[in-house]
UniProtKB/TrEMBL annotation:
Record field: compositional bias (Gly residues): 148-157
Source domain of life: Eukaryota
Annotated TM spans: none
Stated name of the protein: Uncharacterized protein
Stored InterPro entries: RibonucZ/Hydroxyglut_hydro
Region feature (Disordered): 1-33, 140-167
Length: 334
């Protein structure tokens, strides 16, 4: 990583003129071919680590954290990432309902009324490039939970004897926690045709049926014993959190976008359709965009693609049904 890191610019200029080239003249010089145009540093991380994104805070003083877990991308080492927020320490649950005067009296008497650490909340999971093997995980064992304080322990401040075995245990625990609790899962989904499923693991990528298998048993409502939909496990305030799945990295062999979406509509369970967004902007054909011959009164697929390049799968299914009904009405008129 050091060679790559050397190609990036120091994000903190040392000469005070803001151009980052160290000469103090304020003018930005032309970059050499071995220099990045991005003001950033590349930092290598390993599975099972926790990194605080310093300098970035969410609302209410929440800190942003990144946790890493190992995935399986063929013969290439690869990681997935979990984005979390940690709230400032609050009152311990046993004191939450007491009047302010009583809480103040307890504090003055030396009682520790606040939690030592704020609560951690999973915000999003990004799988990166992986095949199904990288996302299969069982519930952590009691031994795993005991490592460095359970699901919220470990990370950057781990003990000196933090060896590879401990990191691997945390990596598996982080993956389980992310799939179980995250309200947003960004999951790669490269292959869609049924006959391509055997190709997926060899290429180190996911098939749509692999995505369903990976989510099974993690509260997504796919034949889960708990009925699915997310239970807010360990969440602040309790209650359910809406869960969303975003599928990306769809192979260009499934162009145009409507072909890919039809395959997904056939494969994704009905209970997931309205929770699923699909990144299709790069798959849209000229015809699906409207091209040069667009008729204003006719809807095109691009009309339901959001500004982020994604289309909601449930919305697409309803749009497709409406287009079929419209075509039938036109045929009946003829």
């Amino acid at each position: 990583m050091s060679a790559m890191d050397g190609m990036c610019l120091d994000p903190s200029p040392s000469d005070g003129d803001g151009d980052g080239d160290g000469d103090g003249d304020g003018a930005v010089r032309a970059r050499r071919r071995n220099e990045s145009l991005m003001k950033m540093n590349v930092v290598g991380v390993r599975p099972g680590e926790e990194i605080e994104l310093k300098g970035i805070k969410g609302r209410d003083g929440k800190r942003l954290l990144l946790r890493t877990f190992a995935v399986s991308h063929g013969s290439h080492p690869a990681l997935g990432y979990i984005l979390l927020t940690r709230s400032p320490p609050g009152l311990k649950p046993e004191y939450a309902g007491l009047p302010g005067k009583e809480i103040g009296a307890l504090a003055r008497s030396g009682v520790r009324i606040k939690e030592e650490e704020g609560r951690v909340r999973v915000e999003a999971v990004y799988t990166g490039d992986t095949c199904l093997e990288g996302l299969l995980c069982a519930s952590p064992t009691e031994e795993d939970e005991g490592e460095n304080g359970g699901a919220e322990g470990g990370g950057a401040g781990a003990a000196p004897d933090d060896d590879e075995a401990r990191r691997n245990k945390r990596s598996r625990r982080y993956l389980f926690q992310g799939l179980r609790e995250s309200p947003l899962l960004l999951c790669e989904c490269t292959f869609l045709d049924a006959e391509l499923r055997d190709m997926a693991p060899a290429k180190g990528h996911m098939h749509v049926l692999d995505v369903i298998e990976a989510l099974r048993g993690h509260g997504w409502g796919i034949d889960d014993a708990d009925g699915g939909g997310g239970s807010g496990n360990g969440e602040e305030g309790g209650g359910e959190r809406r869960r969303e799945l975003v599928l990306f990295h769809i192979s260009g062999r499934h162009r145009p976008a409507s072909v890919a979406l039809d395959l997904l509509a056939d494969a994704i369970p009905v209970c997931l359709a309205d929770k699923t967004g699909v990144a299709v902007a790069s798959l849209l054909s000229d015809k699906e965009k409207g091209g040069q011959t667009r008729e204003e009164e006719r809807a095109f697929l691009a009309d339901i693609v959001g500004g982020d390049g994604c289309v909601n799968l449930g919305e697409y299914i309803r749009w497709r049904e409406e287009m079929i009904r419209e075509e039938r009405r036109v045929e009946d008129v003829k």
